[in-house]
Design brief:
- This protein has a single domain, classed as Divalent-metal-dependent TIM barrel enzymes (TIM Barrel, Alpha-Beta Barrel).
- It contains nine helices and eight strands.
- The chain has an eight-stranded parallel beta barrel, surrounded by five helices.
- Helix 3 runs parallel beside helix 4, helix 4 crosses helix 5 and helix 7 packs parallel to helix 8.
- It is globular.
Length: about 270
């Protein structure tokens, strides 16, 4: 398992400063944020990162989250942006794009007794993910569905909600990202949930229950990492959180050291 950071969290006034800091401090991967770029022209992004000393391993989010909007033009804009970012992910050698399909309540009207809004959303999301899965495969990348918590999303909250869609899609390039912060809110037992859905997990987000850097709260990362080891996860775990403390760089360094100790403890449990 490899530890990485979102680019925006890294100390430095320029992208190159941030990349150097990451390389100097043992960061193993960097996640960039889609909203920082124009999907209509990603050539400058490719140039910006082509000689990065730390690999770009994921693209988080999208420029819009209208995948499930009733307006076909809005849906198309989100889908087309995803296709552009999936191509960028492939070009950069990244795992893929991370996307929650919607924020807030349903936008599709309830058509009961034919189908309620949630059923319609799921059916639509399955068809969209089939399309994006094919495109992702052509780009050698993954489209990763992200469940959020009940305060941010109504549709995919538990890991099982995303797995339901992934199984219905049935495409190997549509997978799951698991976020410790959201799981801490929605799952009764995060390690057991990881064991149940582990074969679909391709990426992980890290934050403590405070939504600050790991080690600032009460999430049991040793137990969570042990579950990830049990399901054979070998991918990237990326900080997606606020950084607390007066010295941002020091706080990140301490959190990375803490996580590496958690990984070591989890490995020791497996060997016992």
């Amino acid at each position: 398992m490899k530890i990485g950071l979102q680019l925006g969290l890294i100390p430095g006034s320029t992208t190159q400063d941030k990349l150097k800091w990451a390389a100097d401090n043992g960061v193993e991967g960097i996640e960039i944020t889609a909203r920082a770029y124009d999907p209509a022209d990603l050539t400058p992004v490719r140039r910006e990162f082509e000689n990065s000393p730390v690999p770009i391993v994921s693209i988080c989010g999208n420029t819009t989250f209208d995948y499930l909007d009733p307006d076909p033009a809005k849906r198309k804009a989100s889908i087309d942006a995803s296709k552009a970012f999936l191509k960028l992910a492939g070009d950069l050698g990244a795992v893929g794009q991370i996307a929650p399909p919607i924020f807030g309540p349903p936008r599709i009207p309830d058509l009961s007794p034919y189908k309620d809004a949630i059923t319609l959303e799921k059916d639509l999301l399955v068809e969209i993910c089939k399309d994006l899965g094919e495109h992702a495969a052509a780009c050698n990348a993954l489209f990763m569905l992200e469940p959020l918590n009940r305060y941010e999303q109504h549709l995919l909250k538990k890991q099982a909600d995303a797995v339901e869609i992934i199984e219905r899609v049935g495409h190997p390039n549509v997978t799951l990202i698991s976020d410790f912060f959201h799981m801490h809110i929605e799952e009764r037992n995060t390690p057991e949930t990881i064991r149940q859905v582990g074969k679909y997990i391709s990426h992980v987000h890290l934050a403590d229950n405070t939504r600050e850097q790991p080690g600032t709260g009460d999430i049991d990362f040793v137990a969570g990492f042990k579950a990830l080891l049990d399901v054979g996860f070998k991918g990237y775990m990326i900080f997606e959180c606020r950084i607390s403390g007066p010295d941002k760089g020091k706080a990140i360094q301490e959190s990375i050291a803490y996580l590496r100790s958690c990984i070591d403890k989890a490995k020791a449990l497996g060997a016992a």
